[in-house]
Amino acid sequence: MSSTHLSLHFHIVFSTKDRHPWFAPSVRPRLHDFLGGIIRAEKGHPHAVGGTGDHVHVLMGLDATHSLAKVMQRLKSVSSSWIHRELQLAGFAWQEGYGGFTVSATNLRRVRNYVLNQEEHHRTKTFQQEYVQLLKRGLVTYDEKYLW
Predict the structure, then answer these.
(1) Which of 71, 100, 93, 80 lies closest to 31, judged by CA?
(2) pLDDT for 69-120, tens place per residue?
(3) Residue 9's CB: how many other CB atoms inside 10 A?
(4) Which of 79, 86, 67, 81 minimizes the C-alpha distance to 14?
(5) d(CA 99, CA 11)
(6) How far is it, in rounded angstroms, from Cα 7 to Cα 89?
(7) pTM of the predicted model as reported, rounded to 2 decimal places
(8) Cβ–Cβ < 8 Å for 75, 58
C-alpha cells in the first residue's frame, strides 16, 4: 500500500482544578469555540466541544503525525492563558491530567450528541459518576485514590 489511511478520533474529558465551576452558561459557547480553534490550529478536526461549569468534553480527530499528549498540553496551556486574559478569571487553572478515549467512526454521531448535550446529561449524573463510567467503559485501569 502506497499511502497511510487512518481514522483516529478521541473523546477527551478534562476538568477545572478542584472541579471549581468557573464557566457560567453565558461564557461556555465562547470557550468551546476557542477550544475548537486551538484544535484546528494544531491541524486537528474538532467534531464537537461541550461541557458544564467545571469540565469540558472534546471530540476530535487527529492524524498520524499528532501526539495526543502534545495536543492536550497545547489545548490546556493556550486556553488557560486565553481564559485569564479574555474571561478575566484570576486564579483559574485546569486540573492536571485528562481522560482520553478512542471512538470508532461508526460511533462519532452518538458521542458528538453526548458531548454537545452535557448540561442535560448532568441533570441526572455527577461529573464523578460520569467519569468513572467512562473509565470502566473504556477498560481503563485506575486507582480511586488518584482520581480526585
Answers:
(1) 80
(2) 999 999 999 999 999 999 999 999 999 999 999 999 999 999 999 999 998 8
(3) 20
(4) 79
(5) 8
(6) 37
(7) 0.91
(8) yes
